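Supplementary Note 3. Input sequence used for the single-chain structure prediction.
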Amino acid sequence: MSLFDPIELRGLQVRNRIWLPPMCQYCAGESGEWLGRPNDWHYQHYASRSVGGFGLITVEATAVTPVGRISNKCLCLDDEADVPAFRHIARVITQHGGVAAIQLNHAGRKASTRGGLGGGALPPEEAWETVGPSAIAFEGLPAPREMTEAEIQAVIAQFACSANLAVESGFQAIEIHAAHGYLIHQFLSPISNHREDAWGGDFEGRTRLLREVVRAVRAVIGDVPLFVRISATDWLAENFEEVDGSYGWTLQDSIRLVRELPDVDFWSVSTGGCFPVKIPAGPGYQVPFARRIREETGAVVGAAGQITNATQADVVVYEEEADVVYVGRVGLHDPYVPRHWAKVLDVEIPWPDQLVRGRSTR
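The predicted structure, written as discrete structure tokens, is reproduced below.
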């Protein structure tokens, strides 16, 4: 298995194993009819990465309801009227050979922040009420209101609605965001979920929201590949640090969850985000978690986290530590990373006719 081998998921062919992860651009419309809709920046950004050779391009965290937006400048797909704008993103990705995926999200207690670097809570006059599994604040943000049973059921329906609209828009894969401390992760982790009803407590209760979202989304998307992004650990166990007598969400929890959700076609493995904790970030620091999940479950997985050069990425795939590598920050400043890495690895990949004359021969 090598970096430029194609990969197939539920009949969907992806041209290589260098994928662009979802990364918020913080420039969506903030109000009126353009609230949460993409614009010219999004179109050129995603088209450039497809031209640049990424196999699969995942559109940034897109809220399933306006109050589920991470920030006031994040995308939202919750209405038929949004479809034309999102359809254009899917089209510019696919027309250049990439596969168009989209990540659907609800930010929960981490919503209503200021878009862009620095972030932080919006001022009261611009903020909206946040909700979560329990009324427990994330560091520096207001405490959310504990969700009712009816609100939880509504969120499940909202994920299904947005997934249906995404498929209508032309997206070829749907990713559910269950990582980085957003709503679904908040339900998974005992740090943020102190409920005593059927949506909290033991493993079954805390994972119920994700299970129900997966079931609802699969029902509306049919055979379209379904991805889940997961934080493999809250990093408390690795730091031997307990919070309220718990290590939070752990790698063993993730392995069990992956085993029990066979309807998910692909797992994007990340870590952290639910609790402020020291994370020993470094080159490929999340790859071991992807490898463990892959080895112990047989799932198809992607690894992310400071994968920054061709040799490093190729080794991850060749050694079967992960099936796919996500290249994020490097891909932000250089949309042609896959083409540069192909040259380093002495792999020939086709260039668009429009760019052949500019191809470097040095």
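The longest strand covers residues 56-63. The chain has one domain: 7-358.
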